[in-house]
Amino acid sequence: MDLFGTGALATRSLSAIFSLAAIVVFFDLCRWLHGPRIALLAAAISALAIGQLDFAQEARSYPMLIFFGLCCADLVVRIEYLGLSRRRLIALTCCLIATALTHYLSAGALIALAIYAVIRLRGRVRWQTIAAFAIAAILILAVWIPMFVTQKHTLPSMTPTFLQEAPGANHAKLTLFRIIGLPTENLLGEARGEALTSKLVLAIFLFTIPLPLIRLIKRRDLLLWILWTLGTIGFVAAMDLTRQTTLVGYMRYTILASPAIYAVIAAFDWPRRNFLRDAVAIAAVGLIGVVAVQRSVDGVPAKEDWRALTDNLNHFAGPDDLLVFFNRDPWASSGTWYMGYKYYAPDSHRPWLILRGRAGATLLKQLQPRPCLWLIGLYPETDGPRLLPGWQPEAVITTSAGGICRMIPADSPGLAGRP
Fold it and tell me: Model pTM?
């Protein structure tokens, strides 16, 4: 953003670049493990998978996480096939640090990669490679622990409310169901995955995770992907089970396992059926391609649509109307709604106010001369009377980014031209 600005194209383009670069690294990794034919099929699945397309369009770190994670795996496999060199060890150490500092939930995959190095490498090569992991771990902790301590003192809770399991729920059972749904959501998208039958979702899960484990005896080239999947998903699931959280229910926290899912699909072969050896991979590419095209025609479902929220405010609110921003969840501050509005209305001169709780007597006195004001947040129509005693909601506009509620004095007969 310092180089290119804070526009949507500038901020999202970095994710797109990392996502495209990850496909190239993924192809190279699969080429060493399985050969160029399977590598091409795996890269095609990666390029079309709905989960990858979604994250490649967001100003978030997950495509960068996948890129650096794949770089780590590619370097270990290159050491396995090409031998040790100082350049590869330095590059591996740097990529390990970059992966871990991009997201701490990459720890499971990196531990799995270290186990792969112990199993596959021999002698001096093995121990020097493990030494690179150890050096990286020391440097990672030296940087990360002070950041963690700072966050622990500044955040109200290290577990946000949206990640907490509902009281009384069968947490272990729900965690298992979330794990089963991960491959389908990754390939076809969360909305599409929810629309499929439970039997089909279960079949995709069995095909992409347990089946490769069963075939490991004859397919040693699947070892990396099995360890990678178990390490990534297992680490997140273990955190969920010990902390009563729902991390596995959000695809972004296990998105690092996605290359393993694509690779085992591309590498599937029918025993003694050469003419069918690529049937599964080709069918997967075709199915995902159809879904991707359909989504591009229909439009990608929006998340928080701050543009729509801003457009509604610009249309209905007067130039001097007061905008009041509030949200009750401390993990998404009231300022988030102000920033979302201001991003799409940088030249707005409307007065604004960020509330952190119930308005005091001084503020209420300052608001008395106003005929109306606009409360913006997740639940403005219910929060309004509690936050602003003496004011009542008159009209509400709902967007995917939250609600916009016009508030009027409780003794007001109402205003004409309500939206």
Answer: 0.84
